[in-house]
Amino acid sequence: MRGRGRGNGWPNLNRDVLMGGLLRTACALLAALLMLPLAGVLAARAAEAPPLKVALQPVLTRQTLQRPVFLTSVPDGSGDLVVVEQRGVIWRFGPNDSGASVYLDARDRVSTAGNEEGLLSIAFAPDFIHNRTFYVFYSDRQPRRTVVARYLAAAPGHRAPPTAEEVVLDVRQPYANHNGGQLAFGPDGMLYVGLGDGGSAGDPHHNGQNRATLLGSILRLDVSRQAGGHAYAIPPDNPFVSARDHSRHEIWAYGLRNPCVSASTARPATCGPGMWARMRWRRWTASCGAATMAGTSWRARSATTPRRAAGGAD
Fold it and tell me: How much is the pLDDT for 235?
């Protein structure tokens, strides 16, 4: 049906609306045409980019190690490496595998009764080159507990005497698994401690969502100071410092199954055989102090999957 417009019978149109629409269409077409050469260049560069090549090189070949669980460098300019053995021994290796010496022997206090127990990690203080201080995370015997201890390093080539141990933190553990095991200093100078949910399977004590316990959490501690009767101080910007419930102020993140691996350039995962129970974060030590993680969802969920749908992961 024809309208009441003039000429060809099309309806009357607002000239400004018509011209505006045509102008927008023309601009969009022009922008697309201008982007075509750039898209071609980017595609060509992507096609030309060589694949990333990774080569493995033997580093330590002269020493037989028993269940090594952690390796890091000594931040004193020496180029030395230290390797943590789960049984309770830390070895120090010179550059280019030039020799090994026992850095710490704590077998008299480390429990390896459970498969996941033992001496699990070491973290050097940010100002280690000046104060020679390092920290270790291990499982203790009777009572079963996790210990974070401070040591004063001996001169190169000498052992750190176990009698020099200063316990910074100890946490009772109900079971021999899911004890966590990671220590790491963030760029903020705080010490981050990964504690598992306490063990067994499926978090039977509901520790993951209970902020009144330190279990199932990553703690953030200021070990450069002491306060409140502890061998550490609580950073005032920890997320639950102002909480009006029973939340432990040491907690930086909770709801974790078993945080045991971290690195500023890695993707940490919760330890254990259950594929559904692995929860990952990118660069959580690199972001320490920049943001709080607060709550995650174990045991209600494993990563993004409801635990029931995950087959009851442990």
Answer: 95
Distance from the Cα of residue 202 to its chain's centroid = 22
Average pLDDT, consecutive stretches of 10 residues, N- to C-terminus, the chain (314 residues): 48 58 62 58 65 81 88 90 94 84 92 90 94 93 90 75 85 80 92 83 70 83 94 94 88 79 42 35 34 45 48 52
The dihedral of CA 61, 65, 71, 73: what is its sign?
Answer: negative
Domain ranges of the chain: 14-50, 68-306
> d(Cα 255, Cα 218) in Å, to the nearest integer?
9
Answer whether 0.90 is exceeded by the pTM. Answer: no
Residues 210, 190: Cα–Cα separation, whole Å: 23
Residues 6+ apart with CB under 8 A from 183: 121, 122, 123, 135, 136, 137, 148, 191, 192, 193, 194
| 68-306 CATH fold | Neuraminidase (2.120.10)
Burial string for 165-202 (b: 16+ CB within 10 Å, else e) reads beebbebebebbbbbbbbbbbbeeebbbbbbbbbbeeb
For 145-205, the three-class secondary structure string (H helix, E strand, C coil) is EEEEEEEECCCCCCCCCHHHCEEEEEEECCCCCCCCCEEEECCCCCEEEEECCCCCCCCCC
**Tens digits of per-residue pLDDT, 247-289?**
889 989 888 777 765 443 333 444 443 333 333 333 333 333 3
